C-alpha cells in the first residue's frame, strides 16, 4: 500500500460523502482531535517509563481515550450525519465523569488557578487539556456552519476536565505541589 495518493495536492481532501478544502471547518475539527491524540500518545509514552504498576490505571485510561478520540474523528468525518453510524455515545462522557470524580476525591483541595506544569506527566496532561479545549472550539465552530454530532462536543468538554484532574493527580502522586497563580482570587470551591 502506498501512503501517498497525490489526491490532496490541489488543496482538497475527502470526508465521507464529499470533497472539501483542507481548511474546511470539519477537517479543522477532526484534525485538531488527531493532534490531541498525538499528545495523549506522548503522555502515555512518558508515563510508561515510570515505575511498573504505579501508573497502569492511567495508561489504561489513556489507551481507551485514544480509541475514543478516533471515534470522535470518525463521527466528525461525515459530511451528512448518519445517526446509525455515530460511535461516540453518552456512556463515554459519563465514564469520564466517574474518572474525574475519582481523581478529584484524592486530589488536594483547590481554591485558586494553578500554573500548568510541575512534574513531566502533569505538564503533558496540561498540554492535552489545552489542545482538547482547542478541539472543542473547532467543533463548536463546525456546528455553527454544518451538521455536527453533539455528543462529540460533550465528550471533548468533559475530556479537558479529565486532563486537568489527571494533571493534578499526577503531581500529587509524584509529591509535586501545584503552584498557584499568585494573583488568582479564590475561584474554586469543593462540591459535595
UniProtKB/TrEMBL annotation:
Annotated ranges, domain Cobalamin adenosyltransferase-like: 3-169
Enzyme class: transferase
Catalytic function, reaction form: 2 cob(II)alamin + reduced [electron-transfer flavoprotein] + 2 ATP = 2 adenosylcob(III)alamin + 2 triphosphate + oxidized [electron-transfer flavoprotein] + 3 H(+); 2 cob(II)yrinate a,c diamide + reduced [electron-transfer flavoprotein] + 2 ATP = 2 adenosylcob(III)yrinate a,c-diamide + 2 triphosphate + oxidized [electron-transfer flavoprotein] + 3 H(+)
Gene3D superfamilies found in the cross-reference section: Cobalamin adenosyltransferase-like
Pfam families: Cob_adeno_trans
GO biological process: one example: cobalamin biosynthetic process
EC numbers for this chain: 2.5.1.17
Organism domain of life: Bacteria
Pathway info: Cofactor biosynthesis; adenosylcobalamin biosynthesis; adenosylcobalamin from cob(II)yrinate a,c-diamide: step 2/7
Keywords annotated in UniProt: ATP-binding, Cobalamin biosynthesis, Nucleotide-binding, Transferase
Subunit structure: Homotrimer.
This protein's name: Corrinoid adenosyltransferase
Amino acid at each position: 500500500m502506498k501512503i501517498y495518493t497525490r489526491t490532496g495536492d490541489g488543496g482538497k481532501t475527502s470526508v465521507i460523502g464529499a470533497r472539501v478544502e483542507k481548511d474546511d471547518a470539519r477537517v479543522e475539527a477532526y484534525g485538531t482531535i488527531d493532534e490531541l491524540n498525538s499528545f495523549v500518545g506522548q503522555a502515555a509514552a512518558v508515563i510508561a517509563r515510570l515505575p511498573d504498576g504505579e501508573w497502569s490505571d492511567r495508561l489504561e485510561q489513556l489507551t481507551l481515550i485514544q480509541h475514543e478520540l478516533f471515534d470522535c474523528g470518525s463521527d466528525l468525518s461525515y459530511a451528512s450525519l448518519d445517526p446509525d453510524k455515530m460511535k461516540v455515545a453518552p456512556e463515554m462522557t459519563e465514564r469520564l465523569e466517574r474518572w474525574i470524580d475519582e481523581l478529584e476525591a484524592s486530589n488536594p483541595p483547590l481554591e485558586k488557578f494553578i500554573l500548568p506544569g510541575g512534574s513531566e506527566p502533569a505538564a503533558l496532561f496540561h498540554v492535552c487539556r489545552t489542545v482538547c479545549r482547542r478541539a472543542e472550539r473547532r467543533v463548536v465552530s463546525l456546528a455553527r456552519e454544518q451538521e455536527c454530532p453533539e455528543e462529540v462536543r460533550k465528550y471533548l468538554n468533559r475530556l479537558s476536565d479529565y486532563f486537568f484532574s489527571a494533571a493534578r493527580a499526577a503531581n500529587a502522586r509524584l509529591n509535586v505541589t501545584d503552584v498557584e497563580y499568585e494573583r488568582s482570587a479564590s475561584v474554586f470551591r469543593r462540591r459535595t
